């Protein structure tokens, strides 16, 4: 067994704690022995289907034990997994599967029809495996050889300022390192029981699984917060010790009557990422879960986690996102590449073994995102975010150098929403902005001007977005203008629109 890989963690936990529960979902419970056996079976099937070392295999599934099996089986077969959102529409699935040149897709029955339609037009896609059906009868594949820590582990898609998805490339050593770093500062251990309502297609949810397996703990998977009563029941029934969330999760939970009076003696740790919590929301969370410590964190898909704020600092520095995670460096530079002094604003730089290798098939964007470090072969990630630090070295997020919106813990590219709206006849101009929102982190607001005589209204435009975009990308509000404001050089004045977005919605908005 080669150390430093995701599969080495699973094999080690299966050997050390074979009878311990690894995964719980709505339908099944798997021990580490059962998880290891099922991973081995699926890995053999994948190799029998011709999946080879370095191939990309997409996972398009909702949270489930089957999804976890798929992720680890792909790695054991020597391939790289590509987690994709199960709510992605056909056009986006087609683009992503084609872009990563996926050789196979593992999906569940709920998304099979979408995947089937998409697969008909993709030359590289050979097999679609549905998890709730018998595996295809193929000869067991030969061993792929030892998977090394420098082998390709995953391509995880994020969005850039252009709205085009970019595939962040990670080796096993990158993912193994950052999982260990997070485990260290959170103090996770084998007796922890983590409740994950975050999708495994998102890095925050994905790493709950990876960290669970790393320490031999238990993860309980839920399908989000659509049924908060189920989440509360799981907190009690499963004796949950760790609850990760984003602002949307905390908004729902602190709004539940009587939850603060529930006896949750096992819950010891809360984590927040995706967007910062306001000071008032932090107080709400503490009031609802008085015996649990709250970690505030900041990260990017390109390196998973950058920094964390220890719980004992959250009252002292409520606006800070903390310090660099163990084993890494984070500092702030000005436009000339010089480190700035305390209190000055510049771009956050990140250095460590958690930094991605680059963007899949996109060397130009990679060169803009990753720059050479101080030593030969050293690499530094340019965050694209503006930060400052205080005299004690704690970091503070100031703003984005691009216009990415973080809503419900998901990265939203305004350009992707704008393209969907521009596809409608009668739409003249569109600009999408994000504004602070207590529940969502940031709310997506679409500003639209229409061609004279156009029959569309705010409600029909929002309905169109819901038909063509994932749910977290659908604008909370659509505002119709006679004309969008312009800057002196004739471009749409996005800054002014962002300021207007925080005002009460006019009559022509929903």
CA gyration radius, whole angstroms: 23 Å
* Main sheet properties: 5 strands, mixed
Rounded average pLDDT: 91
Counting DSSP E segments of at least 2 residues, the number of strands comes to 26
Structural domains: how many? 2
What is the 3D form? Answer: globular
CATH class of the largest domain: Alpha Beta
Strand order of the largest sheet: 11-12-13-14-15
CATH topology of the largest domain: Rossmann fold
Structural class: alpha/beta
Task: Give the CATH H-level superfamily of the largest domain.
Answer: ANL, N-terminal domain
Tell me what the CATH architecture of the largest domain is: 3-Layer(aba) Sandwich
The separation of the N and C termini measures: 56 Å
Q: Give the low-confidence spans.
A: none
User: Percent range for helical residues?
Assistant: 25-40%
The percent range for strand residues is: 25-35%
Helical stretch count? 14
Structural features, described:
This protein is an alpha/beta fold and 510 residues long. The chain has 2 domains: 382 residues, ANL, N-terminal domain (Rossmann fold, 3-Layer(aba) Sandwich), CATH 3.40.50; 97 residues, ANL, C-terminal domain (GMP Synthetase, Chain A, domain 3, 2-Layer Sandwich). Helices cover 30% and strands 26% of the residues. The chain has a 5-stranded mixed β-sheet with strand order 11-12-13-14-15, sandwiched between helices. Strands 16, 17, 19, 20 and 21 form a 5-stranded antiparallel β-sheet that branches. Helix 13 links the parallel strand 25 and strand 26. Helix 1 crosses helix 2, helix 1 packs across helix 7 and helix 4 crosses helix 5. It is globular and about 65 Å long. The model has no long low-confidence stretch (mean pLDDT 91).
């Amino acid at each position: 067994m080669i150390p430093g890989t995701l599969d080495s963690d699973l094999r080690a936990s299966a050997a050390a704690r074979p009878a311990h529960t690894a995964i719980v979902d709505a339908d099944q419970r798997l021990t580490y022995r059962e998880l290891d056996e099922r991973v081995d079976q699926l890995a053999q099937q994948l190799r029998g289907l011709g999946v080879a070392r370095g191939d990309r295999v997409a996972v398009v599934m909702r949270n489930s034990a089957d999804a976890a099996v798929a992720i680890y089986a792909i790695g054991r077969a020597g391939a790289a997994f590509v987690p994709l959102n199960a709510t992605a529409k056909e056009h986006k699935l087609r683009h992503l599967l084609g872009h990563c040149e996926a050789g196979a897709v593992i999906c569940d029955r709920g998304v099979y029809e979408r995947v089937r339609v998409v697969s008909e037009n993709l030359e590289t896609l050979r097999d679609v495996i549905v998890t709730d059906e018998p595996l295809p009868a193929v000869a067991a594949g030969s061993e792929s050889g030892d998977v090394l820590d420098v082998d390709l582990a995953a391509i995880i898609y994020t969005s850039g300022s252009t709205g085009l998805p970019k595939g962040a490339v990670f080796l096993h050593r990158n993912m193994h390192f950052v999982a260990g770093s997070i485990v260290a500062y959170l103090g996770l251990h084998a007796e922890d029981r983590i409740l994950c309502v975050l999708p495994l297609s998102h890095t925050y949810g994905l790493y709950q699984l990876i960290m669970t397996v790393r320490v031999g703990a238990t993860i309980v998977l839920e399908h989000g917060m659509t049924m908060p009563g189920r989440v509360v029941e799981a907190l009690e029934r499963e004796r949950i010790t760790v609850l990760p969330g984003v602002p949307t999760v905390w908004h729902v939970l602190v709004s539940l009557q009587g939850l603060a009076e529930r006896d949750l003696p096992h819950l010891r740790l809360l984590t927040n990422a995706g967007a910062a919590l306001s000071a008032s929301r932090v107080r709400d969370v503490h009031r609802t879960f008085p015996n649990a410590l709250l970690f505030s964190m900041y990260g990017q898909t390109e390196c998973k986690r950058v920094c964390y704020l220890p719980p004992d600092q959250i009252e002292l520095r409520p606006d800070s996102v903390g310090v660099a995670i163990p084993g890494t460096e984070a500092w702030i530079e000005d436009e000339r590449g010089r480190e700035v002094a305390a209190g000055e604003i510049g771009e956050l730089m990140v250095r460590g073994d958690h930094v991605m290798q680059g963007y899949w098939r996109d060397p130009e964007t990679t060169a803009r995102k990753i720059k050479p470090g101080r030593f030969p072969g050293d690499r530094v990630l340019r965050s694209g975010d503006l930060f400052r630090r205080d005299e004690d070295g704690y970091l503070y997020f100031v703003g984005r150098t691009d216009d990415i919106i973080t809503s419900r813990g998901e990265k939203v590219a305004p350009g992707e929403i704008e393209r969907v709206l521009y596809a409608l006849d009668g739409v003249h101009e569109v600009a999408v902005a994000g504004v602070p929102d207590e529940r969502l982190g940031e709310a997506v607001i679409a500003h639209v001007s229409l061609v004279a005589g156009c029959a569309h209204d705010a409600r029909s435009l929002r309905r169109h977005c819901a038909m063509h975009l994932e749910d977290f990308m659908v604008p909370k509000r659509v505002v119709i203008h006679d004309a969008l404001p312009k800057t002196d050089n004739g471009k749409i004045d996005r800054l002014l629109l962002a300021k207007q977005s925080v005002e009460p919605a006019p009559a022509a908005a929903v």
